[in-house]
Amino acid sequence: MRTVEEAVALIKGEKVDIITLVFTDILGRLKGFNLSVAEIDRAFNEGIVFDGSSVEGFVRIEESDLIAKPDPDAIFIAPASVSGLKTAYVVCDILTPAGEPFARDPRGILKGKLQRLAAEGYAHYVGPELEYFYFASADSPELLDEAGYFDILPSYRPTLAREETVKILREMDIEVEASHHEVAPSQHEVDFRYSDALRAADVLQISKMIIKEIARKHGLYASFMPKPIFGVNGSGLHLHMSVWKDGENLFYDEGHEYQLSTFAQRFLGGLLSNIKYITLVLNQWVNSYKRLVVGYEAPVYISWGRSNRSALVRVPAFKKPSSARIELRSPDPGTNPYLAFVAILTAGFKGVEEGAKLPPPVEQDIYHMSESRRRRLRIDSLPSSLKEAIELARKRPILKEALGEPMFNKLIENKLVEWDRFRIAVTDYEINTYFGML
User: CATH 3.30.590.10: does it fit domain 112-430?
Assistant: First the structure.
């Protein structure tokens, strides 16, 4: 834990040109404002008042004032090569004028959940794998290559952009384990080292911004849209995770076939039984459900296994107890990571508390399994549309419990508006299919 004094000394010692205080709205979009370096002491000690009425999901005009309070442990210093100015990005918690945590601050919701678990000795660790596309511009999703998984294109602009991005992230003390070209043309992946869930969410938010900025420098556009191109794989945000207590990985048991402890089995059982009801925050856009279809390496069916990449949850092979983990494959990079992580934690711990029974693993290719066989194996499906995800979220109280009623109600309200706008829009498919026929 870094003290305020240590945080101020770090920023001043780095001789930054500018400070940017950042926070996240309910849709996962990074927001922020610049601050003079001379104001940093006041920011850490008092917070900075700002108008929250124009931030999606925050407050109404008549109650607009909120406070951005920088977190001393969430400082990311970007070199001048990124934007021309050496910039300290400081992630903030959002408080009410009375100094209380704001009920619709996504980061505050996750932080509160982790603090409650920490009081019982638990720590939650996450290692995200972030997929995204490079395009020629923001005007249209034009593919830049015909390469595939792990292909090496050394002097290729997107490769240079990705490699510079990784270099910058490491300079910002963001631990990147690996990066590579993904399966789809123009698609890339950056893998982050395990960290506690709050740090992992902060890292994702900052990294996505840096990825976009370095892409712009190279004359490219980086997109985290889940499914920007019909006919090729969409982009996922695969999450490797485990729960620890007193320095011990609670997911490991040498005697189990998959080396999964009873705790891990119950956690996974809770996640699988509740996944439909929290999918609204894991896959929050209309476009998210264009990715969750058969044939494009994205999960559709609710199951788990070891080598089965058609399963929703995979248990990767590992060599030591500290590496025991599960990999959730349904979230996409358009998610709000703070809300996603708190929903996953709530579902998993619900399984632990209730002694959830883990169904048998499925190692066959579920995509090519007959519907009757899936029924016999009791393999359920994820929601197939944003509308269905909204209805499921309202059907069971798990998501409301995870997010709190104020955030849950605002999220449902926002997503109903999005669905209605999509529902009444006339799409290219309709013009191409019906215009010349009717």
Answer: yes
